[in-house]
Design goal:
The protein has 10 helices and 7 strands. The chain has 216 residues and is mostly helical. The chain has one domain: Orthogonal Bundle (yeast vps74-n-term truncation variant fold), CATH 1.10.3630.10. Strand 6 and strand 7 form a beta hairpin. The longest helix is centred in the N-terminal third of the chain and has 19 residues.
Length: 216
């Protein structure tokens, strides 16, 4: 099973060019990936948060490098209770590192491949075309089926819908007409679970803090 961060990355990736196509990539994608990792750690009962603080609940590693790099930050803090603003100042600069771990994981799973090339024969460039697009198809199909039905989502499905919604990625998956039609259902699902509401609020906080100077 893919992590939330891996699913979010695949949804943001152009499967032909092998590059991220969303605007403001550095800010939006990094915020989305950090938020997705925090969501997964919350979902797994490793951390919790309220409007002001993060709380370390269980520092036992998950075995997933994408998650454990961030969990180590909480485990290494002086207190098990830390202000959200402080944590985000520490975590947001890790966005590129988290992206690297996500890419490494997707390559190891045989979903993406790394292609080195040069622009104008001089400037090095790297892209990540899809080898096996079944995972992308499965994620998009699951989301469409869920949104186009009345079935009650599992907590994990509700979390994924909430993450995709708050990161603005439904605009990449759905046509403008579909988005308008399905928006009430998206918002309904995003409000079903208390945890999804908390994580949505957290990612909004991440976006607000994304332009703050890093913590020193």
């Amino acid at each position: 099973m893919l992590s939330f961060a891996e699913e979010i990355y695949l949804l943001a990736l152009d499967d032909v060019s092998g590059k991220i196509t969303i605007t403001s990539k550095d800010v939006v994608l990094n915020s989305a990936l950090i938020g997705s990792v925090l969501a997964e750690l919350c979902f797994l009962g490793k951390i919790d948060n309220d409007n002001e603080y993060f709380y370390l609940i269980d520092k036992t590693p998950t075995g997933q490098p994408v998650l454990d790099n961030v969990l180590e930050v909480f485990a290494g803090a002086e207190s098990e209770k830390n202000p959200i603003e402080h944590c985000l100042r520490v975590l947001l600069p890790m966005g590129d590192k988290v992206e690297g771990k996500v890419l490494e994981s997707l390559i190891n799973k045989g979903i993406l491949k790394k292609v080195e090339e040069k622009i104008l024969w001089i400037f090095p460039s790297r892209r990540y075309p899809v080898i096996n697009d079944q995972e992308i198809i499965d994620v998009e199909r699951r989301l469409r089926q869920l949104l186009d039905s009345d079935e009650v989502p599992t907590p994990r499905e509700a979390m994924l819908v909430s993450l995709v919604h708050v990161c603005g990625l439904f605009n990449e998956i759905l046509s403008p007409r579909e988005y308008v039609r399905l928006l009430p259902r998206i918002e309904q699902i995003a409000k079903l679970e208390l945890l999804t509401q908390k994580v949505s609020e957290l990612i909004l906080q991440i976006n607000n803090f994304a332009n703050l100077p890093p913590f020193v």
